[in-house]
Amino acid sequence: MHKNADVDALASAYYLSKIFGNSVIASDGMDRFAKSLAEKFSISVIQDLPGENFEEIITVDAASREQLGKFKDMRVDAVYDHHASNDIIAETRVVKEDYPSCAEMLYDLFGKVDSREAGILLLGGIITDTRWFRFANTRTFEIFNRIIKDMDIEFSEISELFDFPYIQSEKVAILKGLQRMKFRTKGRKIICVTIVGAYESSFAVFVQNLVDVVFVASQRKKEVRIIGRSKEADLLEIFRLASEDFGCTYGGHRNAAGMACIGDPEALLNALMKITEKFL
Q1: Could you tell me the fold of the domain covering 168-279?
Q2: Most exposed of 122, 129, 186, 197 (fewest Cβ within 10 Å)?
Q3: Are 2 and 68 in contact (CB under 8 A)?
Q4: What pLDDT is recorded for position 252?
Q5: pLDDT (tens digit, 9 = 90+) per residue, 193-211?
Q6: What confidence score (pLDDT) does residue 217 get?
Q7: Nearest-CA neighbor of 16 among 133, 84, 103?
């Protein structure tokens, strides 16, 4: 799984572990939602690969080797992903960007497994990666319905499990982000940027209904991490143009993507605002 793995990554890895059997799940950290679910379902996720040879090493929901964190230099035999920017080379590559979540792509490929837990997690991966169906398409609903029927799952089991309330530190991070926020208007469009210490995605989700494009930066030692959310502007193209000047790595989708750079976060955000204005 990619570093700081989310629910979609955990769901995809756990599902494949049931498909292939005798598998281990590894990640360079998980976000609090994935970590909570791993504990709830007693899923073992190791942080270091044991010193043995594996028959096959598979990545899920990871668009680049950089996203694999401390596992970025390992051998990769198979890739399952839904990001258009995926550039991981492997003998088996299944990358289908028209699926809003990796979880639904995998279920469409492999079908039912004898595990309600895997089904519940897959539904959670779909819900969280589509932001409760905001980015879903017709096939998403068809697959979601198929999983519910195949696994005999009630929707109430999902809504209760994946309706994550804000925790105190998350609220504080969002409020600080609002204090530091800058925005520009281009016609009737609004672009906003801010810097937070943590919970970049939470801030982006909080404001994305109010603005057309949002960029949220955070400093991680020498690295600056920026996530973007957009209603119509192509974030991958915006990040590509920004990376020409700042030497960044980036990945994700047109409307939800991330970038990692070495530099000044203010300068990076200002550059992203200027580039985005041209797109709007």
Answers
A1: Diaminopimelate Epimerase; Chain A, domain 1 (3.10.310)
A2: 197
A3: yes
A4: 80
A5: 999 998 898 899 899 889 9
A6: 96
A7: 103
| pLDDT at position 92 | 93
Q: Please report the pLDDT score of residue 254 as a whole number.
A: 85
Contact indicator for 148, 121 with CB cutoff of 8 Å? no
Domain coordinates of the chain in residue numbers? 7-162, 168-279
Residue ranges in the chain whose pLDDT is less than 70: 50-52
